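Exercise: predict the fold of this chain.
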Amino acid sequence: MVAKPGLRRVTAPDIGNVPAREGAESANGLLASTGGFGAKVRQWWPYYAMMAPGIIFFILFHYLPIWEAKIAFEQVRIIPPNIWVGLKHFQVLFTSPVFWQVLVNTLIISGMKMLFVFPVPIIVALMLNEVRSGSLRKFIQSAVYLPHFLSWVVIAGVFIAALSPSDGVVNDITGFFGGQPKSYMTDTGAIRWVLVFSEMWRSAGWDSLLYLAAIIAIDQALYDAAEMDGANRWQKILYVTIPGIVPTIATLFILNAGMFLSADLNQVINFSNDVVRSQIDIVDTYVYRIGLQTGEYSLATAAGLFKAVLGMLLILLAHLFSKRLTGKGVW
């Protein structure tokens, strides 16, 4: 068929991601009519099926609990209805020295992780991008991705063994250079750094995937132009690669700011002991303790709601800061 001048003949390959089994008739049908929601679900049901577990998870554990957050303003009774008490639980919360201590611990641990852990995946992605050997890159990627798939129970066991004052590899190395054995897991001055380094070891490789994807998306012509201008490898990284992934860095920084008060409950529980608990007791462990162990559900909900509202404010502040500094934000 010869198209008339000024007109473009539309065929199946021109219609984005239309499934191959639908063929040209399905593509032309989409051009003729978008159809109703039911028709779209029948057509794209494999994709909806793949999204279903994640959607159900968020509905059950993130959206439905929003309605039950009202018990932060109620006195829970075994036999309903609950008694409305207003801001009573928040007053108890804000006058509790224990709550302020766990809040300070949370801010310190989260700040250390943001400062020392957040840049590491960026550095890992930049280094992996410079590895030219395909087999070496695959080996390094496998090695740095593996810790992400380990549970915190396993990781805590690894660190407890490695940091043992009697036969741990870390103390063996420091002893070889004349240092004295040290019990890092019961040292109140070192336990927060143990949390930081264990988080770094676990997440640095896996989190670098997003930055690697952003690096791959950078136009190769920019590197060619930089090379023609005489730029060396470091200058290409500084003036091409890093500016190219700034939007990704800004977005992940904002998302991490929203989780600033979530210093990883599972990690803290597995690394905690009676000696160092005062240094790493965070808001989440406080909520877990007063909610599930003592049964003060309203007070625990009030603490969780306070953390959620503060997290939302941090997202807004991080977004405004990122927009002013880099011109990029979440919206």
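Check your answer against the key: The longest strand covers residues 74-75.
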